[in-house]
Amino acid sequence: MKISGLGSRVYIRRCLIHLPVGLAIAFVALEGAVLGVLMAFYFIIYQINEDRNIKDFAYPDIAGSIWGMFLYVTIRHIIKLVS
């Protein structure tokens, strides 16, 4: 599978599919930092291994999880500011 660019449908779809992974990692990291860091580490290792073995260009998967983490932390801070 070839990913043609940041705006391609495949890139966006794969980012969105991995958004919940980032949400879960951020939730766990803010509750217990060690477990969250381990989850993020193992997810990235898994993606690198998958990319190396099946050449599926893992960077949109990792980017999607990063966007999920950013989204969770941002929403959590906004809720804290409002309440």
Structure, described:
The chain has helices spanning 9-31, 33-54, 59-82. The chain has one domain (9-82). It is mostly helical and 83 residues long.
Q: What distinguishing features does this structure have?
A:
single chain, flat, mainly alpha, 83 residues
**Tally of contiguous helical segments:** 3
Describe the main β-sheet briefly: none
The total domain count is 1
Low-confidence stretches: none
Topology:
Elements: H1 9-31, H2 33-54, H3 59-82
Helix pairs in contact: 1-2, 1-3
Could you write a compact summary of the structure shown?
The protein has helices spanning 9-31, 33-54, 59-82.
